[in-house]
């Protein structure tokens, strides 16, 4: 069961608590685990309007909407398209200060201004991405990117098959 913890506002300090909280919510079912991960991050992060996952579909060869918190979203994203597709196909985190300046940005929510997308790797391959949107320009810092990469790595360990 999730036990709320005192948020200091410094993600570098709070990341161990976030990782512990996520570990307490782990389940053998990937959808259940990612659902709680989206909820946990949405609870923790300030100034975000969407937190969720896109998962790779071998069948359709595209990213498909997974568990999320926020307004309804784009359902399918081709590799290399938009911020999520770019993060997936490159295998590299994408931190975008102004999504309107990102070539090929997919506007699922007109209020989103900045975005952070981190690949989710399991068993040596990318199985999806964590996508976080904010209505503020330049919302995501280096420290936040680094801490959230640690979170995603720990999350991947929880969902390994």
Q: Can you offer a commentary on this structure?
A:
This protein is α+β, with helices and mostly antiparallel strands. The protein has a single domain, classed as GAF domain (Beta-Lactamase). The chain has helices at 11-24, 30-44, 82-90, 142-158; strands at residues 50-57, 62-70, 76-77, 94-96, 114-122, 125-134. Strands 3-2-1-6-5-4 form a six-stranded antiparallel sheet, with helices on both faces. The mean pLDDT is 94.
Write the layout of secondary structure elements.
Layout: H1 11-24, H2 30-44, E1 50-57, E2 62-70, E3 76-77, H3 82-90, E4 94-96, E5 114-122, E6 125-134, H4 142-158
Antiparallel strand pairs: 1-2, 1-6, 2-3, 4-5, 5-6
Provide a compact summary of the structure.
By secondary structure, this protein is of the alpha+beta class. It is built from four helices and six strands. Strand 2 and strand 3 (76-77) form a beta hairpin.
Q: How many strands, which pairing sense, and closed or not: the largest β-sheet? A: 6 strands, antiparallel
> Average pLDDT value?
94
The CATH topology turns out to be Beta-Lactamase
**Side-by-side strand order of the widest sheet:** 3-2-1-6-5-4
| Total beta strand runs | 6
The value of Rg in angstroms is 15 Å
Highlighted features:
161 residues; 6 strands; 4 helices; 34% helix; alpha+beta; Beta-Lactamase; six-stranded antiparallel beta sheet; 25% strand
